[in-house]
Design goal:
The protein has helices at 6-81, 84-95, 101-121, 152-159, 200-210, 236-239, 253-258, 298-301, 303-353, 372-378, 393-396, 402-411, 455-477, 496-502, 506-509, 514-517, 532-539; strands at 126-130, 135-139, 164-165, 176-184, 190-199, 218-222, 228-231, 264-271, 277-285, 290-297, 358-362, 367-370, 413-421, 427-438, 444-453, 483-485, 491-494, 519-522, 549-552. It is of the alpha+beta class. Among the domains are: 82-202, 2-Layer Sandwich (Beta-Lactamase), CATH 3.30.450.20; 355-453, PAS domain (Beta-Lactamase, 2-Layer Sandwich); 476-552, PAS domain (Beta-Lactamase). A hairpin with a 4-residue loop joins strand 9 and strand 10 (290-297).
Length: 557
């Protein structure tokens, strides 16, 4: 395969490399962006599903805890109400006339029998309600003398012999629940109902702790008016407030839905009663008559998504910076390539226009470029102007002498004269300079050589030498003294007659000023005369001398 133009090869290679680099960078940026966007979507979907599971699990845990607690409280009330001493004291109290000593003793006995179980259960009081729904005994005395309105169905259920939990009671000291159980006579017939008030805030807070979601989440219990009954991680101020967003007169989306008896899950976010953006799950418990909700702040629930989004943003920014850096680098490289290409074109134009042959060879000495002057010089195939840059190997070797290549490789440069025989049979003499180019590691990269055809000059020099030889023979055979000087009057040549006349050999007189050698005086007066050589050089004319002059030799003759 024939070598190609060095200029064209580099230009095409640089353009191709720049295009590949730019296209690859664009594909990389778009690929990273698309992959990151897809990954973020997958992470967000997984996190939302995880948040849904956590919210519903926490809600179910809190609801199950509330119902389990309700069952335990009912069992406690039934256990206390079925105690032998409680049943006996209640029968005596109800059978004694109101205000009698017997009634008082029965009341004291009942209080004594209830004190230990209530203290053990952590309860602080009770109501004893007879069949006509009238409170016959309460403790402590701070309790209302009558049960709140709306408890009649509960009492009826208790008198039917069934324990249970009352709907929410709202006495002056705050919302409460109450567990109730029937007290029976000897025949097992309910004769009264024991009602045990339960502090709602304390109990609901305990239950809420079982269903807390994440470190920043909370579980809430609330009534059908949206008042918070208790919950986990509540400040005293928030525990007493209504579920209304700041500046609003309506309930939060969660509370408004739950108080209508409907449950739900919101993963998109809504404003809670503190003004925070939260996600949540909620339900209404008909058995307890309360709403239950589990909430977590959006920033906490979707923390992983936020971190992934920020990471993606940073990655995209870094990618864009990298992309811009690559683009700037490529543009800068492109400008340098264009400038280099222009310079290479100018250099190529100079190389093609010069009359001296110029040749480049690779590290093995194989030529890959020869300018037009070189092709015209060596002749042969492809020497016409405009032919391919690469010279035929058989002809290019004329300019790449193996010995010269070896010397150039050893010392870095070589100069000398070579004789070559061209394709048309002409023998030419070349004055040539060859350079060896190496990389930083010292390895040979390529050779360059510039030659000049000095055949005509050599012919003229040979002819001049012949003419000189003939002149010397002629001057040596005549009887006159002949002396030649340079432009400064220094002696360059004397013929034998001049040597004899001056009394010194030519070797001693060479390069001496003619005025020191040609000492002329007047024949009669012996006065020194001007040197005719100096006059000739100064005035640029032929100078003659009369016979009245004498020449003084070095020996005084």
């Amino acid at each position: 395969m024939a070598p190609v133009s060095l200029t064209r090869l580099r230009l095409v290679t640089d353009r191709f490399a720049s295009g590949i680099a730019l296209g690859g960078t664009l594909l990389f940026v778009f690929g990273v962006g698309a992959g990151a966007w897809w990954t973020l979507g997958q992470i967000e979907t997984a996190v939302r599903e995880s948040a849904r599971r956590n919210l519903t699990t926490s809600l179910a845990t809190a609801r199950e805890g509330a119902r389990h607690w309700s069952t335990r409280q009912q069992a406690l009330a039934a256990s206390v109400a079925s105690g032998r001493e409680v049943m006996e004291a209640t029968r005596r109290l109800l059978g004694a006339p109101a205000g009698s000593r017997a009634a008082a003793r029965a009341a004291e006995a009942l209080e004594a029998s209830l004190a230990e179980p209530l203290r053990t259960a952590g309860l602080g009081g009770y109501w004893l309600v007879r069949a006509d729904e009238r409170v016959v005994l309460r403790s402590p005395a701070s309790l209302p003398p009558a049960l709140p309105e709306g408890t009649e169905p509960v009492l009826a259920r208790g008198l039917d012999g069934l324990p249970g939990i009352t709907p929410l009671l709202t006495p002056e000291d705050g919302p409460r629940l109450a567990a109730y159980a029937p007290i029976r006579d000897a025949r097992g017939i309910p004769i009264a109902v024991l009602v045990l008030p339960l502090p709602a805030e304390r109990e609901f807070t305990r239950m809420a702790e079982l269903g807390a979601f994440r470190s920043q989440g909370r579980t809430l219990f609330f009534d059908n008016d949206g008042h918070i009954l208790g919950g986990s991680r509540l400040s005293p101020a928030s525990a007493a407030r209504r579920l209304e967003p700041p500046g609003s007169s309506g309930l939060t989306r969660m509370a408004a839905t739950a108080t209508t008896g409907r449950g739900g899950v919101d993963l998109d976010g809504y404003v809670d009663h503190l003004g925070h953006q939260v996600v949540g799950a909620w339900a209404w418990d008909d058995q307890l008559g309360i709403g239950i909700a589990t909430e977590a702040e959006v920033r906490e629930a979707y923390h992983v998504v936020d971190v992934a989004r920020q990471t993606l943003l940073v990655a995209c920014l870094l990618t864009m910076v990298l992309f811009l850096g690559v683009v700037v680098t490529l543009l800068h490289a492109r400008r340098r390539t264009v400038a280099l290409s222009a310079m290479q074109r100018r250099l190529a134009a100079v190389l093609e226009s010069t009359t001296d042959p110029v040749c480049f060879a690779n590290a093995t000495g194989q030529a890959f470029y020869l300018n037009d002057a070189g092709r015209a010089l060596i002749g042969g195939p492809g020497h016409e102007r405009g032919a391919p840059d690469a010279p035929p190997p058989s002809w290019s070797r004329l300019l790449l002498n193996d010995a010269a290549l070896a010397l150039a490789a050893r010392s870095g440069t070589w100069s000398g004269e070579l004789s070559i025989l061209t394709a048309d049979g002409r023998e030419l003499t070349l004055s040539q300079v060859m350079l060896c180019h190496r990389d930083d590691a010292g390895n040979v990269q390529f050779y360059s050589t510039v030659a000049r055809d000095i055949t005509e000059r050599k012919r003229l020099e040979a002819r001049l030498a012949e003419e000189k030889d003939r002149a010397v023979v002629t001057l040596g055979s005549i009887g006159d003294a002949v002396l030649r000087t340079d432009a400064e009057g220094r002696i360059e040549y004397l013929n034998p007659v001049a040597e004899e006349l001056l009394g010194q050999p030519a070797a001693e007189l060479a390069r001496r000023p003619s005025g020191e050698v040609l000492r002329l005086v007047h024949e009669s007066t012996r006065e020194p005369l001007e040197n005719p050589v100096d006059t000739c050089l100064r005035e640029g004319r032929v100078v003659g001398r009369t016979n009245l002059s004498l020449l003084l030799r070095a020996d005084g003759r």
